[in-house]
Amino acid sequence: MDVLTDNFSLYGKGFLGTVELTVYASALALVLGFVMASFRVAPVGSLRAFGTVWVTVLRNTPLTLLFFAVMLGLPRFGLVLPFELFAVLALGCYTSAFVCEVLRSGINTVPRGQGEAARSLGMTFTQTLGTVVLPQAFRTVIPPIGSTLIALAKNSAIAGAFSVTELLGTYKTLSELGYNIVWTFVWIAVGYLIITLTISALFHVMEKRWGVAR
């Protein structure tokens, strides 16, 4: 317990850093994922192509490489931001590709006749997607979206290697101070467990309330 009690503020700072990364990157991933899923099912070919390229590139790019591209590449084009924002961009964009595919799979579970009926009533693509298709698709994708955001929370550990304050990065300071490395990582693991279990519990509540009855 000495590792935790003697360095509670350090652990707390890292824990809050990971929570902030997770919350902001999750919000970005959900928004971008929704937009890209809309593109992938849009009747406009150029939008479908853009969405396909976005998903293909990001899903097949290692997250560490994406961090390097964002952290080192964007400043060369004059975009200079705090490292925390760069980390949110990298995590959010990367995870958005997976959110997109989860949403698209949910959209594909909605019977085609639903969309055809909406169009026959004169509804536009945007109206059909927003009022008919997505509300039904959302109910089927709650669990996989929860799993995707849990993966995002764990992936945020990579940000520590790029001077971003987060939970895993606390081990460096504690190791230099001579604390037992095993217990250092035990308490780090407990911190991640709290975060992931909270996300899991939140999506479990959402699934119980809005999910499709099995």
From TrEMBL:
Q: What is its main location?
A: membrane
InterPro entries in the cross-refs: AA_ABC_transptr_permease_3TM (IPR010065), ArtM/GltK/GlnP/TcyL/YhdX-like (IPR043429), MetI-like (IPR000515), MetI-like_sf (IPR035906)
User: What keywords sit in the KW lines?
Assistant: Amino-acid transport, Cell membrane, Membrane, Transmembrane, Transmembrane helix, Transport
Domain ABC transmembrane type-1, residue spans: 15-203
Gene3D superfamilies, sorted: MetI-like
Membrane spanning residue stretches = 21-41, 53-72, 79-99, 181-205
Q: Which GO biological-process labels does this protein carry? A: amino acid transport
Q: Name one GO molecular function term.
A: transmembrane transporter activity
Kindly list the places in or outside the cell where this protein is found, as annotated in its UniProt entry. Cell membrane
Family membership, please give it: Belongs to the binding-protein-dependent transport system permease family. HisMQ subfamily.
Task: Give the PANTHER family listed for this entry.
Answer: AMINO-ACID ABC TRANSPORTER PERMEASE PROTEIN YHDX-RELATED, MEMBRANE COMPONENT OF AMINO ACID ABC TRANSPORTER
Record-given protein name: Amino acid ABC transporter permease
